[in-house]
Amino acid sequence: MLTQQTDGTPLAEAVPLGVLGELHPDVVERLELRAERACAAELDLERLLREVLLPKYQPISRYPASMQDLAVVADNSVPVERVAALIRQGAGDLLEALTLFDMYTGPQVGEGKRSLAYRLTFRAADRTLTDENLAKVRGKIIKLLEREINAGIRE
Q1: pTM given for the model
Q2: SS3 annotation, the chain
Q3: pLDDT-based confidence at residue 123 (cuts at 50, 70, 90)
Q4: Please, which residues have CB within 8 angstroms of residue 151's CB and are 6 or more apart in sequence?
């Protein structure tokens, strides 16, 4: 069975998009197919196009984006993807883009640690973000990083 797995949705809870399977040899023979083996699929094409394949339209915001850099110092054992996921979680819907632009290991960050520098792009669909809005989101991200992976911020 083919399934669609959305972000954070366990595979067991994914919504089926269709079924795919190999045809029985008798069916292949009755259909007079040239191949010894053949497969067939039944897909919900309307849903597949609407939810998976077609790009999602989002109007261009009339409000400006705000960019901030955040250098996170974490243990070498913490995957980069985990740090990025926590930043996204903490930032919520205001985070438009997240880019890792630098990775540093050396005496300035400590033994067994590395600094991961991210550029965060924030934008609200309905307003211009203020410094106060961004400080609140940044504080939430930092607290989440500290609590979940014992990471700090490189000043």
Answers
A1: 0.64
A2: CEEECCCCCCHHHCEEEEEEEECCHHHHHHCCCCCCCCEEEEECHHHHHHHHHCCCCCCCCCCCCEEEEEEEEEECCCCHHHHHHHHHHHHHHHEEEEEEEEEECCCCCCCCEEEEEEEEEECCCCCCCCHHHHHHHHHHHHHHHHHHHCCEECC
A3: very high
A4: 72, 73, 74, 75, 78, 83, 145
- Closest by CA to 14, choosing from 46, 50, 52, 40, is 52
Instruction: Return the structure tokens found at 34.
Output: 């040239």
Please state, rounded to an integer, the average pLDDT across all residues of the chain: 87
For Cα atoms 145, 149, 150, give the angle at the middle one, nearest 5 degrees.
80
